[in-house]
Each structure stands twice: as structure tokens, then as C-alpha cells.
Amino acid sequence: MKLTDIQHGNRAISAMQRMSQAAEENGVADMPLEEINQEIQAVRQGK
Fold first, then answer.
1. pLDDT mean over 20-29
2. Tens of pLDDT, residues 3-14
């Protein structure tokens, strides 16, 4: 494994940790998948 692969992996993990923290802070960390998909669909439809 190359150093750049490890660095990319570390950045990906860091990004996931930041997203998880943001979800906790915004009260959506426990949102069910069905509700997430509904939110995505609404955004795609411009609502």
C-alpha cells in the first residue's frame, strides 16, 4: 500500500467523522433510511 492510499483513507475517515458529528449536532443522526430517501427525493424535485 502506498502512502497516498493511506492518506486518502485517512481523509475519507476524517470526512465521515465530520459528517457524523454534524448529523448529531443537527439532530438527524438517527434518521431512518426511508426518511433520508424522502429528503433526497424532495431536493431532487426542487421542494
1. 95
2. 788 888 899 999
Residues near 29 by Cβ (< 8 Å), separated by ≥ 6? 20, 23
d(CA 14, CA 40): 23
User: Cα dist. 46→1, 28, 33, 38, 40 in Å?
Assistant: 43, 21, 20, 12, 10
Residue 28's alpha-carbon distances to 3, 39, 43, in angstroms, are 35, 12, 16
Question: Whole-angstrom Cα distance, residue 37 to residue 25?
Answer: 20
State pTM to two decimals: 0.63
Cα 1 to chain centroid distance, Å, stands at 26
